[in-house]
Amino acid sequence: MIDFHTHILPAVDDGSQSAEESLKMVTSLKSQGIDTAVVTPHFYADEDNPRRFGKRRTEAMHKLNDMLKGSSTEFNIVPGAEVAYFEGISDCEEILDMKIGDTPVMLIEMPFSSWSERMLNELDGIYYKNGTIPLLAHLDRYIRMFNNKKLADKLSGLPVLVQVNTSFFLDKKFSKLAFSMLTKGQIHVIGSDCHNMDSRKPNMDEAMQVIEKNLGHNYIHELEHNERVIFSSERERIERLFI
Ligand SMILES: [Fe+2]
To answer: To the nearest 5 percent, what fractions of the chain are helix, strand and coil?
Structure first.
């Protein structure tokens, strides 16, 4: 199982602040049965540039991989980014390097406001102009913040994939919706969005347990299937998952 949204790289954003903390987070993920983490440091186009970001991310990945060397169980770190939406994003070729590993998929953090038609058109543009497939980061946060239980329905027909945070399944007020969205194919991958070992720690195991308890193991298989489809990088297969 893959954690698709993590801030485990040391000292690159508001996530892990040291190599020691990163190591603890990876150790925790491994103990939960997670063998791969997509590292998704925040990228803000108005305060950073893709080249500088890429260099910082590569250095941090080397640091973490060095620390993991010699460990008895293998752990894969896949480069990605949590790219904050900005106007003109669909015309910006420089950000294309921020896709997840060798896949055509990019994690995008939408604004914490209601989404205008223009924003949805930009998502369309990312796909139709660049061929990059937007994976919407933590869709649950917008649903919960604005109590907008129909947000996923509003996205129907758009060329996007959806990531939700593990906490969605653990939130008493919203877990029913989370299970329903999963059964409807409106959730493609999950991530802990872990930032540290305290308030936002890795908790993939807790989410997997409640999914299994409420929906059965088939839906864990479903999520694993989606992970394989994304990493196959076969566009047609990925496009069949669209919300
Ligand atoms: Fe995040």
So the answer is: 45, 15, 40
